[in-house]
């Protein structure tokens, strides 16, 4: 059902994107993008910076001898974001893909699963803070006809805040263990084996939150750096499109666009949502619709030059992992055959040695 919903949302979003472009002089939008040229490619390549920070902050949640390197975690962040952004997976397919990769690299399942949950929690907390900052900036600096937009966004934050608090509290109530126990009763004890792993996931989540230094750096160092790095993409793209804004305005645009994209998580690539969001938010800051849509187009250029190769990297990693698993299975089988052959060959000599 979710798969079909994602496809329908993609079609509707694509139609909305095309309608927005056709309504606001598509020739002018294309002319702006053509004039910017390679500058949009440079702005898209700047997304490597937030991916590096994402890899570092995600790695900080994991401890132990099998903790992947920062380069490996950056690769995981790249693949996760590529899958979630380009495929109709409701923003969860990337987590499943990277969980499989972490398992192959020797990371404990409970640690890998807990890192996803804690990363999501703290990312949502930081995103909420930056969204409130963006709304406050709009309320203070935008024209009067945009106050309704800011008020609507503010109400969205008010609705989101209790859900965020509830989500954080639930994680400390051992949800995985409780769910496993309920399923175990329903299945007459056949799922008892699940209680152990689910309890370890809950315990891993609690241990990550108890590392105060890691949590504080995550919320007040790594997450702000991610927001600043992604805002740099906005500032560079608008600069090459001939629109001069302050970096603070770029931060406001990025924070609110991220909030809209997160709210429309079921729409693949945020089709239509991003385009409409750019028109509304940039319009509130005095940017004309053609430049706003050209900025949305610059974001699509980034998706093509960053996320399409990310999908290819995922397929390569999957094929290498499958090959390694087959090689390991073949090696184990050959070793077992050699051991059996050696045992069988030694048996006829045993009577001679005895005599």
Unreliable sequence segments:
189-196, 347-355
Provide mean pLDDT, rounded: 76
The percentage of residues in β strands lies in under 5%
Distance between the termini: 74 Å
Rg calculated over all Cα atoms: 25 Å
- In helices, the fraction of residues equals over 70%
Number of helices: 15
Instruction: Describe the main β-sheet briefly.
Output: none
Q: Per the principal axes of the C-alpha atoms, what is the gross shape? A: globular
The arrangement of helices and strands along the chain is: HHHHHHHHHHHHHHH
The secondary structure category is mainly alpha
- Give the beta-strand count: 0
- Structurally, the number of domains stands at 1
Structural descriptors:
single chain; 355 residues; mainly alpha; disordered C terminus
Characterization of this structure:
By secondary structure, this protein is mainly alpha-helical. It has one domain. The protein contains 15 helices and no strands. The chain has helices spanning 2-23, 26-36, 38-45, 48-59, 70-86, 93-104, 109-141, 147-171, 175-186, 195-210, 212-240, 247-263, 273-284, 289-346, 349-354. Helix 4 (48-59) runs antiparallel to helix 11 (212-240), helix 11 packs across helix 12 and helix 12 runs antiparallel to helix 13. The longest helix is centred in the last third of the chain and has 58 residues, at 289-346. It starts with a helix and ends with a helix.
């Amino acid at each position: 059902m979710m798969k079909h919903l994602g496809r329908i949302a993609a079609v509707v979003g694509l139609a909305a994107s095309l309608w927005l472009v056709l309504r606001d002089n598509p020739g002018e939008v294309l002319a702006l993008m053509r004039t910017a040229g390679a500058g949009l490619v440079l702005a898209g390549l700047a997304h490597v910076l937030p991916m590096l920070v994402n890899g570092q902050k995600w790695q900080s949640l994991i401890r132990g001898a099998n903790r992947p390197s920062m380069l490996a975690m950056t690769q995981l962040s790249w693949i996760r974001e590529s899958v979630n952004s380009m495929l109709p997976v409701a923003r969860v397919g990337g987590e499943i893909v990277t969980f499989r990769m972490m398992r192959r690299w020797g990371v404990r399942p409970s640690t890998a699963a807990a890192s996803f949950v804690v990363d999501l929690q703290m990312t949502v907390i930081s995103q909420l803070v930056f969204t409130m900052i963006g709304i406050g900036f709009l309320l203070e600096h935008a024209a009067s006809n945009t106050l309704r937009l800011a008020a609507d966004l503010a109400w969205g934050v008010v609705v989101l805040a209790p859900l965020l608090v509830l989500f954080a509290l639930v994680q400390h109530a051992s949800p995985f263990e409780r769910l496993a126990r309920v399923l175990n009763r329903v299945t007459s004890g056949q799922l008892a084996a699940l209680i152990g792993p689910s309890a370890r996931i809950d315990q891993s989540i609690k241990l990550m939150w108890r590392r105060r230094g890691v949590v504080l750096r995550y919320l007040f160092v790594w997450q702000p750096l991610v927001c600043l790095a992604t805002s740099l993409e906005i500032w560079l793209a608008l600069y090459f499109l001939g629109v001069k804004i302050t970096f603070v305005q770029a931060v406001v645009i990025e924070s609110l666009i991220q909030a809209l994209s997160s709210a429309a998580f079921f729409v693949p690539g945020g089709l239509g949502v991003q385009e409409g969001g750019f028109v509304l938010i940039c319009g509130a800051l005095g940017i004309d619709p053609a430049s706003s849509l050209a900025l949305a187009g610059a974001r699509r250029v980034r998706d093509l030059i960053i996320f399409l190769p990310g999908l290819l990297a995922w397929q390569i990693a999957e094929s290498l992992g499958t090959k390694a698993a087959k090689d390991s299975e073949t090696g184990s089988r050959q070793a077992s055959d050699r051991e059996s052959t050696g045992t069988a060959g030694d048996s006829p000599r045993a009577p001679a040695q005895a005599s």
